[in-house]
Design a protein that fits this description.
The protein contains 3 helices and 6 strands. Strand 3, helix 2 and strand 4 form a beta-alpha-beta unit. It is globular. The strands form 2 sheets. A 4-stranded parallel β-sheet has the order 1-2-3-4, with helices on both faces. By secondary structure, it is α/β, with parallel strands linked by helices.
């Protein structure tokens, strides 16, 4: 899997990782690759005690619904809180009372995935924090 995030040796291409549950967990483990600037994690699966070393100096955006019965809002919150001591930046986006499959409010999940990924790459200005009620300055 590490070869997938390794561009040719003489070319610097920043990479923003985007992953839903297990993909987010995988991304958090691969974030230490030199071209990776950060991770956008959607309804991530971050079990208690998940290693944090690979997030050092990287950006993390984790979005989680409060009605998710498969992955835990509390576990995601704890991971983001821990990441603040390791990562260059860590943001938790509360998607409100939505479940795991990202069908409810799909447009908002998609907007978050695209805008936060582009922001991590420096292709879009940083975005306001999203709450269940809408943007917050």
């Amino acid at each position: 899997p590490r070869r997938a995030v390794a561009p040719p040796p003489l070319l610097y291409v920043p990479i923003a990782l985007l992953g839903p549950p297990m993909g987010a967990r995988t991304g958090a483990r691969l974030a230490d690759e030199p071209h990776v600037v950060g991770l956008v994690a959607l309804a991530p699966w971050f079990p208690k005690g998940e290693p944090m070393d690979a997030m050092a100096g990287k950006q993390l955006v984790a979005a989680q619904g409060r009605s998710d019965r498969i992955t835990s809002f509390r576990a995601t919150t704890e991971y983001v809180d821990r990441a603040r001591g390791h990562a260059a930046g860590a943001e938790l986006v509360d998607m409100g009372r939505v479940g795991h499959y990202m069908f409810r409010d799909a447009g908002r999940w998609n907007d978050l995935a695209v805008t936060r990924s582009l922001s991590l790459l420096g292709l879009l200005a940083p975005q306001p924090v999203l709450t269940a009620a809408g943007p917050r300055p």
